[in-house]
Structures are given as structure tokens and as C-alpha cells.
């Protein structure tokens, strides 16, 4: 097997792992779906861009090797786990409150308008407070590395393209009129599911931080 083939095989494996991770249902994707259906395409794209920015931050950290030091510094990781868990529980509370509202109309009247910058920052924060993102990127970088341990230079740009495609795809798909009409009819159930996902993820992070 040639060196180029070896690199290509490793890089494709890293891309596949990242695609599965980003495309699988999770807090980020569910949040993008909810924002797209509730607030429209621009809002969802702003949030998705924040998620991607957070992911690329951890990608850079993992690639330059800082991640090993962060993982070794247990107090730092515990702090991220606690903050991330509390943030996810806050998101769960907000989604649960929406699910328990009397109607979509009454809820929309009380919702404060959210700026695109605010949505972007929420997307960044959601990903930066997820310590699992560090571990995922350590694995992806390791998958793309050659026998000497050097990460393939295309892993971050390639994963960035994959992430943009996946997350923006969710934003475009669930901002379509048919998806928004479906969301309007099933908003309580979907927001309830989002509250459960955020709640479980938050509690797991807090439980993880105590270990």
C-alpha cells in the first residue's frame, strides 16, 4: 500500500466518523431543526454557523496537541462538564416551558426577538461546553494521522465542509414551508423531545463531572 493510499484511507475514515457524528440526531441538530421551523432559515443558519465554529475550535485545539494537556488537567475538564451540564439543563427548561405553553400563538407573543448574533453565540456556546467534542476530535485527528503521528492537513478543512453541509442542510430542510407547518402542528411534542434530550445530556454531564 502506497503512502498516498494510506493517507487517503485514513482521511476517508476520519471524514466518515465526523459525518456520522454530525448527521446523527443530537442536541445541536435538534436545536437547529427547532430554530429553523420556529424562526426561519437565517436564524437556523446563524445557530448552525456557531455550532460549526465551536467544532472547528476544538478541531484546532486537537490538531495542535493542546487537547492532551486539557484532558490531563482534570480540573479544567470538570469545570467544562459542570458549566456545560448547567447550560444544557437551562436549554431543557426553555424547551420544556415552550412545550407546556397553552398554544403556539401565545408562546410566540411572549418570545423575545433573538438576533442572528445571539443565535450564533448560542451555537458556539453549545459546542464549546461539550467536553465530548474534545475527545471526538482527538479520535478524528488520530484516525487521519500517518505512522509518525502527524495529522493529515486536509482533515480540518474537509470536516469543516462536511459540517457546513450537514448543519446547513438541516437548516434548509426544516425551514421549508411544509416542515414549518408540520412543526406548528407538533410543536409541543418536538419541544418536549428537545427538553428531554437537553435534560438527559445535561444530567449526564453533571454526573460525569462527579466521577
What report would you give on this structure?
The structure is a single chain. The chain has 211 residues and is mainly alpha-helical. It has one domain (8-15, 38-209). It contains ten helices and no strands. The chain has helices at residues 3-23, 27-39, 41-63, 66-72, 74-99, 104-110, 116-128, 131-144, 155-174, 177-209. The termini are far apart.
Question: Topology of this protein?
Answer:
Elements: H1 3-23, H2 27-39, H3 41-63, H4 66-72, H5 74-99, H6 104-110, H7 116-128, H8 131-144, H9 155-174, H10 177-209
Helix pairs in contact: 1-8, 1-9, 2-3, 2-9, 2-10, 3-7, 3-8, 3-9, 5-10
What is the succession of H and E elements? HHHHHHHHHH
Major sheet attributes:
none
Count of β-strands? 0
Percent of residues in β-strands: under 5%
Which term fits the overall shape? globular
Secondary-structure-based class equals mainly alpha
Average of the residue pLDDT scores: 76
Tally of individual domains: 1
Number of helices: 10
Determine the N-to-C terminus distance: 43 Å
- In helices, the fraction of residues equals over 70%
Uncertain regions: pLDDT < 50 for 5+ in a row? Answer: 102-110
Global Rg: 18 Å
Amino acid at each position: 500500500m502506497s503512502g498516498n493510499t494510506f493517507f487517503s484511507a485514513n482521511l476517508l475514515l476520519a471524514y466518515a466518523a465526523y459525518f456520522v457524528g454530525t448527521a446523527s440526531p443530537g442536541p445541536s441538530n435538534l436545536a437547529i431543526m427547532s430554530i429553523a421551523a420556529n424562526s426561519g432559515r437565517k436564524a437556523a443558519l446563524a445557530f448552525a454557523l456557531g455550532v460549526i465554529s465551536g467544532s472547528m475550535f476544538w478541531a484546532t485545539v486537537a490538531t495542535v496537541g493542546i487537547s492532551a494537556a486539557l484532558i490531563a488537567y482534570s480540573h479544567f475538564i470538570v469545570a467544562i462538564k459542570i458549566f456545560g451540564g448547567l447550560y444544557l439543563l437551562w436549554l431543557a427548561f426553555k424547551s420544556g416551558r415552550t412545550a407546556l405553553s397553552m398554544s403556539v400563538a401565545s408562546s410566540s407573543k411572549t418570545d423575545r426577538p433573538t438576533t442572528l448574533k445571539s443565535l450564533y453565540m448560542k451555537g458556539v456556546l453549545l459546542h464549546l461546553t461539550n467536553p465530548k467534542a474534545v475527545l471526538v476530535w482527538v479520535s478524528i485527528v488520530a484516525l487521519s494521522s500517518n505512522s509518525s503521528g502527524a495529522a493529515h492537513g486536509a482533515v480540518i478543512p474537509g470536516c469543516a465542509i462536511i459540517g457546513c453541509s450537514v448543519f446547513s442542510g438541516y437548516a434548509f430542510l426544516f425551514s421549508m414551508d411544509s416542515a414549518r407547518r408540520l412543526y406548528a402542528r407538533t410543536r409541543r411534542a418536538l419541544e418536549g423531545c428537545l427538553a428531554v434530550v437537553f435534560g438527559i445530556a445535561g444530567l449526564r454531564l453533571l454526573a460525569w463531572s462527579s466521577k
